């Protein structure tokens, strides 16, 4: 039986000279969609879907409809004169239970078929070509938007253009001999959207985010290894405050990540490892940062995220309440001009707290919060003014007391000197009144000496 089975298998290999490669939609743990599958899907949609008799439509919005191959459809492709076949397949398991794994509910995959004599060309050149083309099509067709609720339109457009220009500047960076990386410094009070901005930037560019907490890094060597291990197309988010890094390095001998190590991480030899890379620093206190850390060339673009403006409020009102105008907007405009409130606090007040609340109730709650913040700020300003006035008065009293003490000391010193001078003058006057007596005294003293 064994010899017969071996012979049959060998005969089949001789009769069927084609090779099939399967590309499943999900691999590994079943939660992450295969990047290869996504790239192949985009490539086939662009180049081969016109051949398919059955298509499926993916509607992103009213204006964008993407057509792709339906399941169990076959199309042909050609590469360097070689004919290939792509098949789209889908298997639905016959089960009653509910699975948490996407691929258990609908197992999709592509099958590539080609003649075995073209194996080297297909595996070494064609598949690379398909993956690169698929990625390029994805970048070209995706809608590029910076999804952040609090950024003013002009600033949003400026940042969007800057990011896209960076991603398309590979040849330019190679031409000038500079590492393909860019640094962004986001600064502003807490709650102004710095972390949201990082997520929006990553969403725009389809980059992964690597959140690096320096306090958890043992030393410069581990920091370098982390940089090398992160893949290209990365966005590194430095969320720890870098203020006074140098000071902490001097005062705390146990710290292992040094300022010089951090600078090398940003733009030293380590930073040249890998492909394109964006590094983002966030801080609440930009004036405390070491100038060497944030100079141009390290942090190329500085973006201030401040308190909520009226333009940012209108974006939040549109997103949360679907309102573009209201009679209360004018009052809110005046209050935002007079009061400092973060976009996070504005958004929280605009969110309906129950099904009974309408748009006006949310706006009124925001106005009340702004009025309260205004009154609190006024009270704090008055208290601060009183404390400063008190401190000024105490300082003036202290200076005055010191001056009086100084004057008193000078008078006492002058009085003592006057007493000594008066004694000398008295002796001189005695000599003038009784010159003979003094002379006799001198003579007697002289005789006594002899």
From TrEMBL:
One of the protein's GO biological processes: response to stress
Ranges for region Disordered: 378-450
Reported cofactor(s): Mg(2+)
InterPro entries named in the record: AAA+_ATPase (IPR003593), AAA_N_dom (IPR025753), At3g28540-like_C (IPR058017), ATPase_AAA_core (IPR003959), ATPase_AAA_CS (IPR003960), Mitochondrial_chaperone_BCS1 (IPR050747), P-loop_NTPase (IPR027417)
The organism's place on the tree of life at top rank: Eukaryota
Gene Ontology molecular functions: ATP binding; ATP hydrolysis activity
Family: Belongs to the AAA ATPase family. BCS1 subfamily.
Keywords: ATP-binding, Hydrolase, Magnesium, Nucleotide-binding
Protein name: AAA+ ATPase domain-containing protein
SUPFAM superfamilies: P-loop containing nucleoside triphosphate hydrolases
Gene3D superfamilies with a match to the protein in the record: 6.10.280.40, P-loop containing nucleotide triphosphate hydrolases
Domain AAA+ ATPase intervals: 180-309
SMART domains named in the record: AAA
Catalytic activity: ATP + H2O = ADP + phosphate + H(+)
RNA-binding among keywords: no
Residues spanning the signal sequence: none
Sequence ranges of Basic and acidic residues compositional bias: 378-419
Organism: Fraxinus pennsylvanica
A Pfam short name: AAA_assoc
